[in-house]
Amino acid sequence: TGAAGPGTTGYAGLSVRPMAETPPRYHVSLDVADVPGVLATVAQEFAAQGVSIATVRQDGHGDAATLVIVTHRAPDAALATTVARLREMDAVRGVTSVLRVEGLS
Predict the structure, then answer these.
(1) Per-residue pLDDT tens over the stretch 58-70
(2) Which of 23, 53, 78, 84 could connect to 73 by a Cys-Cys bridge, CB 3.0–4.6 Å?
(3) What is the domain extent for residue 45?
(4) What pTM, to 2 d.p., does this model score?
């Protein structure tokens, strides 16, 4: 047998916030052409939609590269527009993943 735990927590009185009010960070992976200016063009599209980039990693392989971009917190709609526009770019061969990054930072 064990001891009884506390009857409530400090979070019990808090309401659940809608997802739209808690913008996450995002992890976005892209396959792109490995030519000068592609990273700048991709970064400009994030900026145009008001999505700030926290980190970028680029791994080249032949005439292609993989970009992995982690954003600061951003509204879902802004990220969705960014991804849609990235898919239209000639230099972007594919958006391979878009993941929400939950957490405090």
Answers:
(1) 999 999 999 999 9
(2) 23
(3) 19-101
(4) 0.82
The neighbouring-strand residues paired with 55 are 70
What is the C-alpha to C-alpha distance for residues 94 and 77, in angstroms, rounded to an integer?
Answer: 20
pLDDT of residue 6: 62
Query: How would residue 4 be classed by pLDDT, with cut points 50, 70 and 90?
Result: low
Task: Specify if 76 maps to a domain.
Answer: yes
Our count of domains for the chain comes to 1
